[in-house]
Specification:
This protein has no helices and four strands. It is an all-beta fold. It has a four-stranded antiparallel beta sheet with strand order 1-2-3-4, with no helix packed on it. A hairpin with a 5-residue loop joins β2 and β3. It is elongated.
Length: 67
């Protein structure tokens, strides 16, 4: 996973890439999906709260598999 973050006084942005895996019939890890994620946080009453979240496919594996 790779991540980037930016923070201001009351707002923070986190963006990262997430790779997911499944086990095949021989118990080997096989890539399933790659995701791009972005989350926006706002400092409200002293607590960081997610105010925006977005997920998107970065790319898919060669074989089409339903999520």
């Amino acid at each position: 996973m790779s991540a980037n973050s930016e923070e201001q006084e009351d707002f923070a942005l986190l963006a990262y890439n997430l790779n997911t895996y499944v086990l095949d019939d021989d118990d080997n890890e096989v890539p399933r999906r790659a995701w791009n994620a972005t989350h926006g946080y706002r400092l409200i009453d002293g607590k960081w709260v997610i105010v925006h979240s977005h997920w998107a496919f970065a790319h898919t594996v060669e074989e089409r598999i339903a999520s």
